[in-house]
């Protein structure tokens, strides 16, 4: 098979696979000798160093992975953050709703209401600046108290928390 065609196939495999893939698995799937597969991969790695490419080929512990160049990371972060903020997951929305209506509230109180661990959800909401640590509870362990932020109000088009829908009215509408 033509060397350029092999590069194209390997690039497609690395792109679709996502996770690091071992040289052995790659060579085996293409029915290539390991040393020849490695030679092609190292050639590809050099080609990706070109300034016009936004990709790089990484080798970690004998496994290869296609990724983006580090210098492009700030632009990717902005896009990913904007997309994630626009598309909050159902657990994130549930957690955010509890915090909005019960604030200030501890993580334990949120977890008791949701019935599940909320560590990662709360971390995500903090990362998106939709909630903040607004204080500490004066009891053993001094747990954080969480409240919504100005950005929360902006995202949901409110001027203040009084504009939150009335919970009793929402319950009546859903029945």
Automatic annotation (TrEMBL):
InterPro entries: ScpB_csome_segregation (IPR005234), WH-like_DNA-bd_sf (IPR036388), WH_DNA-bd_sf (IPR036390)
Keywords: Cell cycle, Cell division, Chromosome partition, Cytoplasm
GO biological process: cell division; chromosome separation
Gene3D superfamilies assigned: Winged helix-like DNA-binding domain superfamily/Winged helix DNA-binding domain
Pfam families hit by this protein: SMC_ScpB
Name of this chain's protein: Segregation and condensation protein B
Upper lineage: Bacteria, Bacillati, Bacillota, Tissierellia, Tissierellales
């Amino acid at each position: 098979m033509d060397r350029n065609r092999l590069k194209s196939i390997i690039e497609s495999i690395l792109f679709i696979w996502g996770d690091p893939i071992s040289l052995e698995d790659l060579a085996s799937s293409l029915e290539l000798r390991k040393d020849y597969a490695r030679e092609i991969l190292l050639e590809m790695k050099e080609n990706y160093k070109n300034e016009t490419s936004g990709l790089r080929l990484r080798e970690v512990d004998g496994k290869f992975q296609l990724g983006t160049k580090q210098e492009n990371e700030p632009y990717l972060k902005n896009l990913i953050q904007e997309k994630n903020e626009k598309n909050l997951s159902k657990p994130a929305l549930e957690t955010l709703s509890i915090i909005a209506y019960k604030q200030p509230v501890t993580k334990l109180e949120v977890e008791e209401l949701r019935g599940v661990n909320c560590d990662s959800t709360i971390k995500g909401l903090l990362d998106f600046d939709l909630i903040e640590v607004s204080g500490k509870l004066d009891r053993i362990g001094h747990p954080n108290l969480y409240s919504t932020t100005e950005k929360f109000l902006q995202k949901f088009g409110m001027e203040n928390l009084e504009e939150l829908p009335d919970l009793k009215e929402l319950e009546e509408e859903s029945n």
